[in-house]
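Title: Comparing notes on inverse folding

I've been comparing how different people in this forum approach sequence design from structure. To keep things fair, I'm posting one structure and asking everyone to reply with a full sequence. Here's the target:
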């Protein structure tokens, strides 16, 4: 059986700050169903819930060198849904409330990268493929390239690197190369290595030194080859585009299932969604809005940031709320957008409900209860929110960019095709006009039920995408049959 090891900074259900955790939490389960053995390595963050900590079993410890220092590597394990999880324990680096944003993030995740490789050898766990994610584990790809020259344990391990968001690259002082990574400058500090202006760039290293690179949608894989989306790495990406594949993310259809979801009061299916409006009435009561199932409810479940298109909404929100609508917001982010939605809730208490926090259960209620999901992102590598909205028959209005372009097909009034609405230019009034188009179709009983049905029947499970990853693994290993 093919053996795959994932290494990442976070994974649901243990730790989650964004879509990376959802992917690392759900893709291994899909690969397991495809007949692949998958183990996942994570840091043992201090924020782990007690119920999860109590599931862990201590296996033992090894150590790694960071410059002149020797750092402890504790190893814990547990199994969830057939996936074996290993946790790297070092309280100095990870017993903190935040997964990221610390002043020593570079050292923390270089340590984690070295610790994963040391733990593999200590466990005598030899993967066929080592699959890393985002900058936090990109150093693993570089280190495998170096270790393989001197240690046969690593010499035949193939590496795959996934870019979830090119905007966060892991750029650090070049002293990290020698002091933390313990890599020779002449081999790795140059333009075709980790050198990035006068610093080192871990994501750049992940791209260069991996055997294959993936990113989380086909459109984003093309977009990042150009300067606007390339974040100063477009040249490197073009140079290595022969090993780049865009694979759209999926979502866990067991967690996000309107037929069985424990977080929503009324269940429904694609073939019988007549009771979906009862979830809207539940939201109206819960959030203090007038109870009226005929009023279209728009929703946002998002980080409130420029990247997510909140500046477009800031320009047109006053005009938008003049429509006969209700608008529900769930999320946190930049203070100016948090304050903006609080202001509109204060000014329009019968139309706007702003929940400036994040709650997983309430997000499910919103996906199930809203009619229209608004996602006008400046850029979006994949996006999971629109996939969840589709699953619950909440019709998305999106900017046609990245993964949004790949997953939301704009409604065509002539053919009846489509599962949402889209606009192209990053323009506030294009967003407004597109929302108004959606509202017009909401009021058309000959159109809206079909849009809900098309949305719910769109398959964004991991079935196709996991097979695409499996195909990459097989090609790297030269195996026509993944089960061998």
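Reply #1:
Here's my take.
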């Amino acid at each position: 059986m093919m053996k795959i090891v994932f290494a990442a900074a976070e994974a649901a259900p243990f730790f989650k700050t964004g879509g990376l955790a959802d992917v690392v939490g759900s893709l291994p389960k899909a690969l397991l169903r495809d007949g692949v053995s998958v183990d996942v390595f994570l840091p043992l963050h201090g924020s782990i819930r007690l119920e999860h900590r109590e599931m862990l079993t201590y296996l033992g410890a090894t150590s790694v060198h960071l410059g002149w220092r020797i750092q402890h590597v504790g190893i814990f394990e547990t199994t969830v849904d057939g996936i074996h999880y290993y946790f790297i324990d070092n309280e100095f680096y990870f017993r903190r409330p935040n997964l990221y944003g610390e002043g020593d993030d570079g050292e923390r995740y270089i340590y984690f990268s070295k610790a994963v490789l040391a733990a593999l050898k200590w466990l005598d766990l030899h993967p066929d493929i080592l699959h890393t994610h985002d900058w936090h584990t990109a150093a693993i790809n570089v280190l495998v390239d170096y270790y393989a020259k001197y240690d046969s344990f690593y010499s035949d391990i193939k590496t795959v690197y996934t870019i979830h968001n090119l905007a966060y690259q892991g750029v650090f002082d070049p002293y990290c190369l020698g002091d933390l990574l313990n890599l020779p400058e002449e081999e790795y500090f140059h333009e075709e290595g980790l050198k990035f202006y006068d610093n080192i760039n871990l994501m750049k290293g992940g791209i260069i030194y991996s055997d294959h690179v993936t990113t989380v949608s086909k459109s984003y894989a093309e977009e990042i080859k150009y300067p606007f989306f390339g974040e100063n790495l477009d040249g490197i990406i073009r140079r290595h585009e022969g090993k780049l594949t865009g694979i759209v993310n999926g979502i866990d259809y067991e967690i996000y299932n309107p037929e069985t979801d424990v977080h929503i009061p009324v269940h429904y299916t694609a073939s019988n969604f007549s009771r979906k409006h009862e979830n809207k009435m539940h939201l109206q009561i819960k959030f203090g809005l007038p109870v009226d199932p005929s009023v279209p409810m728009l929703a946002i479940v998002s980080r409130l940031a420029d990247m997510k298109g909140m500046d477009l909404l800031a320009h047109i929100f006053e005009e938008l709320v003049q429509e006969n609508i209700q608008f529900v917001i769930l999320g946190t982010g930049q203070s100016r957008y948090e304050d903006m939605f609080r202001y509109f809730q204060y000014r329009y208490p019968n139309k706007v409900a702003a929940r400036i926090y994040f709650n997983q259960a309430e997000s499910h209620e919103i996906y199930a209860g809203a009619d229209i999901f608004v996602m006008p992102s400046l850029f979006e590598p994949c996006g999971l929110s629109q996939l969840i909205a589709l699953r619950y028959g909440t019709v998305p209005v999106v900017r046609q960019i990245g993964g949004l372009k790949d997953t939301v097909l704009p409604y065509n009034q002539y053919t009846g095709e489509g599962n949402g609405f889209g606009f192209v230019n990053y323009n506030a009034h294009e967003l407004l006009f597109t929302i108004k188009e959606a509202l017009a179709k909401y009021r058309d009983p000959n159109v809206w039920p079909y849009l809900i049905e098309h949305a719910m029947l769109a398959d964004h499970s991991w079935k196709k995408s996991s097979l695409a990853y499996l195909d990459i693994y097989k090609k790297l290993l030269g195996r026509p049959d993944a089960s061998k």
